[in-house]
Write a structure and sequence with these properties.
mainly alpha, 314 residues, 13 helices, MetI-like fold
Length: 314
């Protein structure tokens, strides 16, 4: 398992470095700058501001200085939030984003897997058609559309749920953003679970379990469930990426104090350190979840672990 972990880390670390490099240079070559709105200031003051953030140096030297600070765990000062460092802003917003994202993933998995299995057990029947139709609808309609619609219906028309703010973490403030994040992931997981279970139920070991006279629920829980979940583990990292990108939009729509809001505001104001800091945190989270998914997959299916180690020796 240690060699398997090291083999995965040898891929994750260079990938993160490539993401940092591309993000750094793409932001620098994009039109506009962090001090364009301060054009009314004296040229000497603008030059001093650029020097304070190392923006007066050649771009390769800026990149080297940034990597040196990053190696020490320093994400730099925020340009748009004068009294905060990027690390402090992320520390403020990350708990909200993590709670929202992890809760959404957990709910999507807890609801999506049973729905997919139920649909598969009722293949081509009305219940299967209903679940599959709802799942395809959830996949087709993004959170960018469902969030405003839910806000209009439940918040403005019915006035049963708040439409903005975190409310010190009150559940009433979480219902709408969580629902908007859960629906697309729930739909995908239900579809994956249905397809996986349909394939597993035709396997010989499942037929053998039924032939022994075991109740259907025991066949599902103790024989078919584990192999059904194996393909879903591979979806873990893409699901995290989907939730994270979706949370950026959701946090902005519902006015939540998460990292996504800082990312949007930083991008609008060309706050290079803040945008790059959020990109690094999001990329590291996706790579971490990808690593966890690989470890879980390798545990569920040892053939994956053996193939990886064999490829490494070759």
């Amino acid at each position: 398992m240690t060699r398997f972990l090291l083999s995965r880390l040898s891929i994750a670390v260079p990938t993160l470095l490539i993401i940092i490099t591309l993000s750094f240079f793409l932001m620098r070559i994009a039109p506009g700058g962090p001090f364009d709105a301060d054009a009314q200031l004296e040229p000497e003051i603008l030059e001093n501001l650029r020097a304070a953030y190392d923006l007066d140096k050649p771009i390769l030297e800026q990149f080297g200085l940034y990597l040196a600070r990053l190696a020490q765990g320093d994400l730099g000062p925020s340009i748009s939030y004068k009294d905060y460092s990027v690390s402090e802003l992320i520390a403020i917003g990350l708990p909200v984003s993590l709670e929202l994202g992890l809760t959404a993933l957990l709910l999507a998995a807890l609801l999506g897997v049973p729905l997919g299995i139920i649909a598969a057990m009722n293949q081509n029947r009305p219940l299967d058609v209903a679940i599959s139709t709802l799942a395809m609808t959830g996949i087709a309609i993004p959170s960018l559309i469902t969030a405003p619609l839910m806000t209009l219906f439940f918040g403005v028309m019915l006035q049963v749920l708040p439409v903005a703010g975190w409310g010190d973490g009150a559940w009433s403030h979480k219902v709408l953003p969580l629902t908007a994040l859960v629906l697309p992931q729930l739909a995908v997981i239900a579809r994956l679970a249905r397809g996986s279970f349909l394939d597993i139920r035709r396997q010989n070991f499942v037929r053998a379990a039924r032939a022994r006279g075991l109740p259907e629920w025991r066949v599902v829980v103790f024989h078919a469930l584990k192999p059904t979940l194996t393909p879903l583990v591979s979806y873990l990292a893409p699901a995290v990426a989907g939730v994270m990108t979706g949370s950026i939009v959701i946090e902005q729509i519902f006015g939540l104090p998460g990292v996504g809001r800082y990312f949007v505001q930083g991008a609008l104001s060309r706050d290079y350190p803040l945008v790059l800091g959020v990109v690094i945190v999001y990329a590291a989270a996706v790579l971490l979840m990808n690593l966890i998914a690989d470890l879980i997959y390798g545990t569920l299916d040892p053939r994956v672990r053996r193939q990886t180690l064999g490829a490494g020796r070759a």
